[in-house]
Amino acid sequence: MTITTLTSRELNQDVTRAKNAAKTGPVVITDRGKPAHVLLSIEEYRRLVGQRRNIADALAMPVADEIAFEPPRTIVDLRPADLS
């Protein structure tokens, strides 16, 4: 992973360079010499954010077609009841 650092001015002058650099790693954007923002590829962002889900997403029921459920068959041993 390559970390690229660009000033705000460099970002404004060459956005394509920043976008291409984000494909290989984070791009730190500085403002007055201090890190202010980070540009990530969407894949990297999703990887980072995907680790933390909110409670509503975690508890949401998936679509029924997505649930693989095949319960095992139960064999019931039938025998006459002893009513004596």
Quick summary:
Antitoxin component of a type II toxin-antitoxin (TA) system. By secondary structure, the chain is α+β, with helices and mostly antiparallel strands.
Detailed description of the structure:
This protein is of the alpha+beta class and 84 residues long. It has a domain at 4-53: YefM-like domain (YefM-like fold), CATH 3.40.1620.10. The chain is 33% helix and 18% strand. The protein has a three-stranded mixed sheet with strand order 1-2-3. A hairpin with a 2-residue loop joins strand 2 (27-31) and strand 3 (34-39). The radius of gyration is 28 Å and the shape is rod-shaped. It starts with a strand and ends in a 25-residue tail after the last helix. The mean pLDDT is 86.
Q: Sum up the overall morphology in one term.
A: rod-shaped
Pattern of helices and strands: EHHEEHH
Quickly name the level 1 CATH class of one domain: Alpha Beta
Tell me the name of the CATH homologous superfamily of one domain.
Answer: YefM-like domain
The share of residues in extended strands comes to 15-25%
Helix content: 25-40%
* DSSP strand tally: 3
Structural classification: alpha+beta
Strand order in the sheet with the most strands: 1-2-3
CATH architecture of one domain: 3-Layer(aba) Sandwich
Q: Mind telling me the C-alpha Rg?
A: 28 Å
Q: How far apart are the first and last residues' alpha carbons, in Å? A: 80 Å
Average pLDDT metric = 86
Please report the number of helical segments: 4
Detail the poorly predicted runs.
none
CATH topology of one domain: YefM-like fold
